[in-house]
Amino acid sequence: MKDLIKETAKYLVSARHVVALTGAGISVESGIPPFRGEGGLWEKYDPMEFAHINSFMNNPEKVWKIFMGDMKKVLLAATPNDGHLGLARLEALGILKTVITQNVDGLHQLAGNTDVIEFHGNFAWLRCLKCDQRFKTVDIDLSEAPPKCPCGGIFRPECVFFGEMIPPTALTRSQEESSQCDVMLVVGTSALVQPAAYMPVIAHQSGATIVEINPDPTPLTRQISKIFLQGKAGEMMNEILSEVSRLIESKKH
Ligand code: NAD
Ligand code: ZN
After folding, report:
1. pTM exceeding 0.85
2. Which site from 13, 73, 97, 113 is most exposed, i.e. has the minimal number of CB atoms within 10 Å?
3. Which tens digit of pLDDT belongs to each residue from 239-248?
4. How much distance in Å is there from the Cα of 23 to the middle of ligand 1?
5. Does residue 120 carry a catalytic annotation?
6. Class for domain 1-31+80-120+168-253, per CATH?
7. Start-to-end C-alpha separation, the chain
């Protein structure tokens, strides 16, 4: 493992353009359960019943009550962990340019990353299905299910449900970043949800080195990923950061 961390740090320090692709796994250490994997929400809920746009439209009350009820508690209380903070530190060092995230928790921005592409939107905003006005989630009383706009319309979160399109600018920018980067860090994603899972493939085809961090192997592991750091995002990022700092220091002398 130590050698793999050293190799990763070398790639990062000599890279021209580093991009990170993150998934629910990077927020697990902040107390937000992922969809898949151990303790994942899929063990409790059927995705098609709760995370598909048709289920939401057919019965917003049910989806808000059960699924969103659970998610909002953890999402609104969570704070960045060492995984997010490590990526913010890599940006501050001038190494990391952009984070493409599938998460809707806003933790990368809270950690300090300034260029975050939200592939699946954000739970921080709600939109009225009737008048289309947007409101900050924290300003809305979520004790009522479904929460309602002053106009009487039902609110939906501004995240992308299964069966919905990826916001076009997020998709275009992600594709551009993926084809332009020379190193991509893929952190905490099962790489099963398309089209997000295709971004490392684009990067790989464009000649980038893919470094993957995950406690479990994914379809990318050893096919697309050159380095697989098997472990938790926070712990791995801390090790990478200390090695990167060591390399930067030794270059100064
Ligand atoms: P996923 O739930 O499909 O997979 C999570 C991955 O994280 C798994 O591969 C798991 O092995 C790994 N993991 C678990 N603990 C980890 C840790 N400590 N460090 C690193 N990796 C860890 O997640 P996905 O690939 O992002 O796709 C699911 C979709 O669910 C996303 O598109 C996202 O929109 C949504 N989602 C978001 C959040 C959030 O915003 N935090 C939470 C749950 C689901
Ligand atoms: Zn309204």
Report:
1. yes
2. 73
3. 999 999 999 9
4. 5
5. yes
6. alpha beta
7. 27
